[in-house]
Structures are given as structure tokens and as C-alpha cells.
Amino acid sequence: MRRLSPATPSIMTNIAQAASLLAARRRTGITGPLLPDHLRPQDIASALAIQAGVIEQLGEQAGGWKCGLNADPPVIMAPIHAGTIHTAGSCTVWTEAGQVRIEPELAFILGHDLPARNTPYSPAEVDAAVARIHLALELIGSRYDDPASAGYLDNLADGLLNQGMLLGPEIAGDAVETLEIRIRMEEGAEQVLDGKHPNGDPRAPLYWLVEFLRGRGTGLRKGQAVITGSFAGSILVPVEQDIAIRFGERGEIAVRFTSNAG
Predict the structure, then answer these.
(1) If I label 131, which of 5, 10, 22, 78 is the partner at 20 to 30 A Cα–Cα?
(2) CA-CA distance, 158 to 22, in Å (whole number)?
(3) Is the pLDDT of residue 157 over 60?
(4) How far apart (Å, rounded) are the C-alpha atoms in residues 247 and 172?
């Protein structure tokens, strides 16, 4: 895979400034306008460099990754900051109008490293590296006031609308293509959605991610959790309420979201 070209010193300065602005918004939860024109990413390489710069400025590590497969745009991947990965039934998030946006997914937990190397990884090698599969919720949040007005590169630089992940229980067996998603609220209301993975095979984006990072001279580490696409799109749920999200017969995530601002 072709490596992305290195940036010039002036571009590196802009990348550092862009990362600083987005990192500050992540710290405070205060959104803002699109970055100034001279700081906005101009290509995939600069957008990914801003992603990496945000992690560095926050003193974070990638505890996981989100990824997807799409011909256009060609790169759908972002690190999930280790400090934003939750496992408890109580989860603190940045909210919008008393709600949080979630996406029901499967998380593949790596049992050993998949480091950079000269030769591609086969799907069988990637499968062998997956130690466990968990139910998961991607926690959605943007650092822009109006995410809909942001372009693909803007959102890629900002981590593709990710503010974290909630890891649910481990499931047995292989990944699945379809799931009935039931969302039950504290008041007794229930929403039922026919869930289907956007790429059919939930492992397919994982295979792509391994190869993409290998081609960049990096890799994935033991313990990282990789989510590969929502089974039911993006769903708004209330905070300060007990919620249960059932993934068909595979299990359930019970959670109570609390606003980070309060």
C-alpha cells in the first residue's frame, strides 16, 4: 500500500495549530465553528495528521479504532481515545439538549499485536488475533457547532464524530450480519429496529484497517477494541435514565448516561 507523503514544515505548523484547537474542544466539550480556512485539512494525509496531533496534545493513546468500508470516501477510520472507553453501567458523556447519540456495534478485541511488516496480513491471521467480540456502543459527538456543514476531511480530522465507546458484554461465536436492536427506556417505551451491518460482514472493515495501518508503517496493539459500523444508524437516547439496548439473542447493554457538563 502506498504511504502518504510527508508534510512540509509550514503544513506541520498548521496541523499542530488545528490539533490544538480540536484538543481544547475535546477537553471542555465546547463546540465551535469550522477551523479557519488555512488550518482546515486539505487532504487525507493532513486530516490523519491532525487526528494524531489531537491524541498527542491530550496525552492520550488509542485504546481502540472505528473504521468502515466505502469506495467514496476511501478512508473511514479514527482512533478512539483510551480515556473515553467505558465499561461500567454508568457512563459520562458530552450531551446535546439532554440527549446523547449512540450507534450499536460489535467490538473486536485484539489478543495480540498486529505490528507493521512488509507483507500483508491474511484474514485468517487477523481472525486469529481477535481474542473476544463484545457488544458495544459508539458514543457520537462532534467538536463543530454544525457537523452537517463540515466536509469529509473536516470530520476525518476530528475523529469522525467519535467521543468514545461503551464496551458491553462479551458474546460467543462468530460475528453476525443482522441483529434485531431493541432500545428500552426507563419509562417503559421501547424502540425496535431491524439491524444490518452496512458492509454485510462486520469483520471486513477490520481486515481493511489492519492493512491500512500496516501500509502506513504502524499497526494495532493487543487490547485495542475495533468497531466496524453501526447495525442501526445513529440513535438519540436520553441522559439520566436507565436504558437497555438488546442485540437480538446476543445480549444486552444496560447503561445510564450522565452529562459531563453537570
Answers:
(1) 78
(2) 7
(3) yes
(4) 13
- Cα 78 to Cα 248: distance, rounded to the nearest angstrom: 28
Taking the C-alpha atoms of residue 196 and residue 71, their distance in angstroms, rounded to an integer, is 19
Please name every residue paired with 220 in a beta bridge, in sequence order, or none if there are none: 114
Please name the amino acid found at residue 242. D
Residue 233 has φ and ψ, to the nearest 5°, of 70, -150
CA distances from 259 to 82, 94, 199 (A): 19, 6, 32
What are the grid coordinates assigned to 220, written together? 494495532
Residue 137, SS3 per DSSP: strand
Residues in the chain: 262
- This prediction has a pTM of 0.93
Q: In this structure, are residues 134 and 107 in contact, taking their beta carbons and an 8 Å threshold?
A: yes
